[in-house]
Amino acid sequence: MPRLILLATAFILAITTGPGFAQTVTVEDATVIKTMISEGLKTFPPACIFKCPTEYRWAGEPQVISAVDHYDVTLPALTIEAGLKTRFDVGEIHLKVTPRPDANYAVEVILPSAISVRQGDAPAGAITIGNQRFTGVWSPAAQIFLTIDSAYKDVVVVDAMAEDNSRLRVGSLSVMQEFRLDKADTASGTETIRFSDLMLTDRQENPRLMIGGMAMELGYDHLDISKTEDDQDAVADTKSLWDGILNGVSINARISGLSGSLEKERVGFDQLSFAISALNLDKETSTISLDVKADGLKLPLYVPIIEIFKPKQLNARVLLDKLPNTATASYLFSLAGIKQEDTPASLQKKLFEAISKAGAELRVERVTFDNSLLSASITGAARMAEPAEGQTAFKPVGGAEISLRGLDLVIQRGRDGIATLKKQKADAALNLKMQEMVAKLLALQLLGQQSKDADGAELRTYKIEATPTGAILLNGGDIKTLKKL
Length: 485
Fold this sequence. Notes:
Layout: H1 3-17, H2 30-42, E1 55-59, E2 63-66, E3 71-81, E4 86-99, E5 105-110, E6 114-119, E7 122-139, E8 144-159, E9 167-183, E10 186-201, E11 207-224, H3 238-242, E12 248-262, E13 265-279, E14 285-295, E15 313-324, H4 325-335, H5 344-358, E16 361-370, E17 375-385, E18 395-405, H6 407-423, H7 428-447, E19 449-452, E20 458-466, E21 472-474, E22 477-478, H8 479-484
Antiparallel strand pairs: 1-3, 2-3, 3-4, 4-5, 4-6, 5-7, 6-7, 7-8, 8-9, 9-10, 10-11, 11-12, 12-13, 13-14, 14-15, 15-16, 16-17, 17-18, 18-20, 19-20, 20-21, 21-22
């Protein structure tokens, strides 16, 4: 996806979910509000713990006018410098701020309907918004939006600098938020982002990517809102940055009707859902899990027999347990350039040592895929073992089991295809490729342990084991020996 469209997408989400515009509305006096908003704009957006090249510039001072029961606020024209000389000329943003009996504020935000984008001095594109609505409840004590209810329709992003003059259209985009204060400086809740009818087209309006809809929910458990805006230079060490900010986080997403092009082949799926969770981030070790489900997968077809292996359905769950938080944070933050405590190689060694000591384990609880002929399942677990005597390298140890159902049917389908091509005197090169593929499948079949399932279908099982000595075993035999057969 062109860079401008990625930047524009990030810009819209930041503008509609960030607390900066209302974070200084804490008193009813218009003059004081104006002063506090002016100070607040100097620190918007909140400092990023990663190295963010984006710069926000406000042209002038905000204007605050007292009305009967609310304040009309006009923020000065905003310009966003996004790196590589890309500039978003946002313009003025309007707010309606209404005091509430609970000492919070109801806030309405109106963005400009058209935002121009420039690359240096040259026009680079534009963002337009057809219809919009943003309402929320701001807590001046906690400095966050407790609720957000926003919707944007007919959003169009044009990238004039791209070779194909890409255009991204989004039929509707909504952002919802529900937070509760656990304590004065700790909050838990969810954010939900939805969009529908997304289409990326080229200059000739040919669709390159289409998504029928997406819904993503982010859940936060005991988010320490007093620490989320710490500047990276104020962090004494990575442990103080990692600890206490968040107990856990989860992401649940569902995407429907995705299709696109890959080397002139159509790819996509009917439904895709995934869930990611990280628990016990405030403890010494954490647990991270990933669940993925997909239906109606569409993958490129290059050799006819490969069609047999195309998974129509996918179901997977992978879990990483007892991950040492401090060592992991040190390594990741160093890679991100936040804090260079040591060389990446040294930090990696320390991470492996911590993983081994904590007994961290990667578990493949299930990976299954099915199509009309072939189905497969994978389970397994692995951990990081300490170096063997006389060695320095950490090595993964563990095992996995792979079961294939219907491999015999796949081989027979391949043989039938070869016979048909030979009879039709079709492409000889294609026939040769299919013969080579069938030969490899026969070898794979021979390596598996044969059995039957409850329905009498043939099963081939492959038990793989990684030993502390570094050997890889397949069904009890050293894979190095098997390669020589």
